[in-house]
Automatic annotation (TrEMBL):
<keyword id="KW-1003">Cell membrane</keyword>
<feature type="transmembrane region" description="Helical">
    <location>
        <begin position="387"/>
        <end position="407"/>
    </location>
</feature>
<dbReference type="Pfam" id="PF02687">
    <property type="entry name" value="FtsX"/>
</dbReference>
<comment type="similarity">
    <text>Belongs to the ABC-4 integral membrane protein family.</text>
</comment>
<dbReference type="InterPro" id="IPR003838">
    <property type="entry name" value="ABC3_permease_C"/>
</dbReference>
<feature type="transmembrane region" description="Helical">
    <location>
        <begin position="21"/>
        <end position="41"/>
    </location>
</feature>
<dbReference type="Pfam" id="PF12704">
    <property type="entry name" value="MacB_PCD"/>
</dbReference>
<feature type="transmembrane region" description="Helical">
    <location>
        <begin position="338"/>
        <end position="367"/>
    </location>
</feature>
<keyword id="KW-0812">Transmembrane</keyword>
<dbReference type="InterPro" id="IPR050250">
    <property type="entry name" value="Macrolide_Exporter_MacB"/>
</dbReference>
<feature type="transmembrane region" description="Helical">
    <location>
        <begin position="293"/>
        <end position="317"/>
    </location>
</feature>
<dbReference type="InterPro" id="IPR025857">
    <property type="entry name" value="MacB_PCD"/>
</dbReference>
<feature type="region of interest" description="Disordered">
    <location>
        <begin position="73"/>
        <end position="95"/>
    </location>
</feature>
<feature type="domain" description="ABC3 transporter permease C-terminal">
    <location>
        <begin position="296"/>
        <end position="419"/>
    </location>
</feature>
<protein>
    <submittedName>
        <fullName>ABC transporter permease</fullName>
    </submittedName>
</protein>
<feature type="compositionally biased region" description="Acidic residues">
    <location>
        <begin position="85"/>
        <end position="95"/>
    </location>
</feature>
<keyword id="KW-1133">Transmembrane helix</keyword>
Length: 426
């Protein structure tokens, strides 16, 4: 008997008792549906977190600040650092300078160090008379997730801005696309005199909503430098070039041990350093824990379903005892009998898993639509539930494996039946 004949025979035998088979498949469907849905949620949330991490900075980037500016805390500390008069009465001694940049550059596995300039213009004004408070950050070595347009330039002399999505309507633009190419006005105060100077900038992009830099607009390096220049004009040299945060780019493909060593060196030098993954890792852990618990419940459902498979096939063996004896008397080997019942178990797992994944995909599409219109409204680019062919194929294969293992007991019983005894069975 060819394997194709075995599959056809197993499929035909499987539906002799439709009610029993359908109930067993439904039990597997429940487990497959739950696992697929929770796996989709995990993939969707982690994909969005990864997207935010790419926007906040690559895994090679370190955000470095003075320990006294990190709310008195470092990553490894469990209590606040005590105040010291050396921190400076006005706090300027706590900020980082060009000397700190040079010191950090000397560390092994550090390729580049530059200040992270988070400028604070007084306001931004678009096509209306209204002026709005705005927070901006300078363009850095990261990819920005955009809803429309392009990223700001990093090395030219152009004054460009990628608006945060919250500002599009407020500045008088009908849509993100409508904002592209428009000129906005930024006001910067000269700290030494209190006077304001206005700068014109071109809108080249509109950002998607971001968890890591929510509400911040990205400005070109040239515009950032000009704003800093205006803000610091007239100030003593000793008060210029102070930075709250530095960004350091490490070499690629460093091990976790090497990254930890860099953080430890920086801590010894009086700096607090974090990777972007450190900052977002807690969210990822929470999501993984929740979906892990839900997956455990689904696994329990599959375990219960496996007992249903055992029962279904045991009953099938009992119903077909004389038939099995006749087949063995005609020369069918015990291995062929075992294979036939094992294929039946695999088919139960396959149909239950396939229907469960199909149901989860349909439910996921509906849930995504509801989520976008309700509690995820405004989080552009966030697809709560995502499915991929490899993950769906893996779920089906795992369920078929569970079904196969559950079917080995009744299949083995059928294979070991004595043909004479089986033919006498009433």
């Amino acid at each position: 008997m060819k394997f194709l004949d075995v599959i056809q025979s197993a499929s035909s035998n499987l539906w002799r008792n439709k009610g029993r088979t359908i109930l067993t498949i439904i039990a597997i469907f429940i487990g497959a549906f739950t696992i697929s849905l929770t796996s989709g949620v995990n993939s969707g949330v982690n994909s969005y977190i990864d997207q935010q991490l790419r926007e906040a900075g690559s895994k090679e980037l370190l955000a470095i600040k003075s320990e006294s500016l990190s709310n008195g805390m470092t990553i490894s500390q469990s209590k606040p650092k005590e105040y010291s008069s050396e921190d400076g009465a006005d706090g300027t001694e706590s900020y980082l300078t060009d000397e700190d940049i040079q010191d950090i550059k000397q560390l092994a596995n550090i390729e580049k160090v530059e200040p992270f300039q988070q400028s604070s213009p007084d306001y931004i004004q678009g096509d209306t008379d209204k002026k709005y408070l705005v927070s901006t950050v300078s363009k850095s070595d990261v990819t920005i997730d955009l809803e429309a347009g392009r990223e700001v330039t990093g090395n030219s002399t152009d004054y460009e801005i990628a608006l945060a999505p919250e500002y599009v309507k407020s500045l008088g633009y009908s849509s993100p696309k409508d904002a592209l190419g428009k000129i906005v006005t930024l006001a910067v105060t000269i700290q030494a005199t209190g006077e304001q100077e206005l700068i014109k900038a071109k809108v080249v992009g509109v950002r998607n909503v971001s968890l890591t830099q929510q509400g911040k607009s990205i400005i070109s390096t040239a515009l950032s430098n000009r704003m800093v220049e205006i803000s610091e004009s007239g100030m003593p040299e000793s008060m210029k070039h102070h930075y709250a945060i530095l960004t350091a780019r490490m070499k690629k493909d460093l091990s976790t041990k090497q990254v930890t060593a860099i953080k430890s060196q920086l801590s010894d030098m009086g700096y607090a350093a974090q990777t972007v993954e450190d900052e977002m890792g807690m969210i990822r852990q929470i999501v993984n824990a929740i979906t892990g618990v839900l997956t455990l419940f689904a696994a329990i459902a599959l375990l219960a379903a496996s007992f249903g498979i055992v029962n279904t096939l045991y009953m099938s063996v009992q119903d077909r005892t004389r038939e099995i004896g006749l087949m063995k008397a005609m020369g069918m080997s015990g291995g062929k009998v075992f294979l036939t019942f094992s294929v039946e178990a695999l088919l139960i797992g396959f149909w239950g898993g396939l229907l469960g994944i199909g149901g989860a995909a349909a439910a996921g599409h509906f849930i995504n639509q509801v989520a976008v219109d309700t509690f995820l409204n405004g989080l552009t680019g966030f697809e709560l539930i995502q499915f991929s062919l490899p993950s769906m194929a893996a779920v089906i294969l795992i369920i078929m494996l569970i079904a196969f293992l559950a079917g080995t007991l009744p299949a083995n019983r059928a294979a070991r039946l004595d043909p004479i005894t089986a033919l006498r069975y009433e």
